[in-house]
Amino acid sequence: MFRKVLIANRGEIAVRLIRACRDLGITSAAVYSDVDRCGLHVLEADEAYRLGEAPAHESYLNVERVLDAARRCGAEAIHPGYGFLSENAEFAAACRDAGLKFIGPAPEAMAALGSKTAARKLAKDHNIPILPGTVDAVTSVAEAQRVAAQIGFPVMLKAAAGGGGKGMRLVTRAEDLPSAYALAGAEAGAAFGDAAVFLERAVLAPRHIEIQILGDEHGAMLWLGERECSIQRRHQKIIEESPSPHLSEKTRRAMGACACAIANAAGYTNAGTVEFLVDEHEGFYFLEVNTRLQVEHPVTEWCTGLDLATWQIRIAAGEPLSFGQDDIVRRGHAIECRIYAEDPEQNFMPSPGTILRLRPPSGPGVREDTGVYEGWTVPLEYDPLLSKLIVWGEDRPQALARMRRALREYQLAGLRNNLEFFRRVFADADFEAGRTDTGFVARLQAKPALPAPDADAWFEAASASAAVAATLSLGDRPTDRQIDGPSNWQRAARLAVLGGGRP
Hints:
- There is one protein chain.
- By secondary structure, the protein is an alpha+beta fold.
- The protein contains 17 helices and 20 strands.
- Helix 12 runs antiparallel to helix 13 (419-426).
- The longest helix is centred in the middle third of the chain and has 17 residues, at 249-265.
């Protein structure tokens, strides 16, 4: 087993991985940018190392600085978390060249699956269903028009690289295809440095369902059930649950077999996720492979009892999986809500700021994975995910009830957030009945809004907490140097919480 692992990430996933290291008796080293010097992951880690200024290319995306931090702290392995460098095959190769174990798949497997067009081609070659369209990027409007005429409208233009809905355009009419092609290519080029787009037939009102896979370096590849991820805004997930209320056991097993097949075809190891679109008749079509730990992995952890983060580390250290496919028992129902600093009334635009009051829920069946604390200022530079609220119940009705209770208990003030939006979702009859697809959020927003929360109460709570925020003023930051050890960080964090000092 490794003695020290560098966590090349920030926020809640970094805290999650630090805890996984601690459970395995591994020393964890955090990295941070200037605006994250007092981040929760820095306070929780055994050691912490500065990367640079706030922009991601100066810090968390800077390969040389991350590798330099690993060398300085004497780490044997690097866990990339999700986002940033987690799906960068060149970074994984650079880790290997530097004598560091990349906790994730081999760079060759990442390269084989990293491009959506390459992955579609691999799926097609192994008889995994894909939507009609191109398996290579379309190179001109004329080619796009020709393919669209063959498969019929509506069609979807998608970026060959990246994700998160960028470079994606739904086209329902032939006359809109030229402008959509230009916009999708420009957006993909700006976001990923690769303007290539491909085209496939669109499925209207689809469900987005993914299969969690886990494979070791000794030839074992297993699937751990599915996650229903259809509740999305701007093509990004905000609620995930398992099992899907839409899927039969027969379809579930067929999707699991396909997920393992494409992973084996690519020589994949470690944790990953194979995503599918599912139509109203349970027809499923391969979308892509996320070659990393997913944000929503706790949903699967709760239903299977497996700790995916620690298994990632154990697999990277060379351990074989200690169980087989028949040993995986999925129990109960889990749901996750992503708590963001964003304004649902303004198209979910990010809303960074200082957290004046934070009181997360607890109780039976409730788990919260967080990367923030009261008094922390959410920076503008990064994804505004604050925490993940996960509940578990013996069945879906109990899980829904526990999520409603948790959302009611959750107190968060000082910045705009999506808690009230989630309360509205879980009060919706269609959601409760499982009548959902990727268009659910738009339909919900078109319905008459529920009464707004009591503004006076909100401001009263915020004002009452202002003193806390002042006490926890983080104006003075640690110096730019290596921290001397875990005890200093733990002591600094405690002093900050007690208001007796500043980290």
